[in-house]
From TrEMBL:
Top-level division of the source organism's lineage: Bacteria
One Pfam family cited in the UniProt record for this chain: ZnuA
Signal sequence, start to end: 1-25
InterPro entries from the UniProt entry: Bact_metal-bind_prot9, ZnuA-like
Protein name: Periplasmic solute-binding protein
Major location category of this protein: other
Record keywords: Metal-binding, Signal, Transport
Molecular-function GO term, any one: metal ion binding
Amino acid sequence: MMKTGSARRAFLAPLALLVAVVATACSGSDGGPAPTDKPVVVASTDVWASVASAVGGEHAEVSALYTSPDGDPHEFEPSSADTARVQDANLIVMNGDHYDQFMEDAAADAQGRKVVAADVRADKTRGNEHVFYDLAAVSDTANAIAEQLAAIAPVNADYYRGRAAAFVTQIDGLRASLTDIKRKHNGTQVASTEPLAAAILTDAGLVDIAPEGFVDAVEQGQSPSAADRAKFDDLLNQHRAKALIYNTQAVDPSTEAILQTARKAKVAVVDFTETLPAGVTDYVVWQRGQIDALAKALDA
């Protein structure tokens, strides 16, 4: 039997209400990220995503905007799809201090919670804008991520806090290795092509003697002066630096020339990166490899 117009309206009204309720639940009552027990986390780089993954585990969906093992994160420009992911995230994790300005811009009006490593680090005098090389600050950030995830998904609060504590214990192991390097090599001079690992070198008791003008120019994406190039060559040829700390992702003709000088002078070269190397997804594994390589170069 056919339904009358009033009967059809009576049938469709509850259905329309149900659809509206489902749509609201999926998008969040205020148009922001949807409530969930498995928060969506978007990080600026794969380094910070690896920290978030260590905390969130199976109860978080973590991704990063910048994941290249070769390029320079400073030059990254997110797509409209990237920005949409940030807007929909329950939690946004970034370095801050203008290092990942692309994420600061993309997240400016996002409604998800935010963890900015440069803001949550307890000791802001340590290192520089490369907060992911300040192991103490990485621990602070992991704990901050745990608290934010716990606020988003309270049912998993103990899980997040437990994983953060386990991660911090692993970071403490890395810091102990730096203390061991300091015990053996306190005051040893090294030279960096770019001030990437400043906090780690300081914790290891090492002194970076790279010409300031050279380092500043590379960091600003400019060509160092001939005088600064000559100074850098001299300290390597004279073996004043025990090792060259080489940022493989801030490379230009001047840094490549310094690399060749170090090799000809038989100065140990230790590669450091700004993002995770190909095939590596674990923050601790990444830093363990770099710290062990540094110790090996200094012990040689």
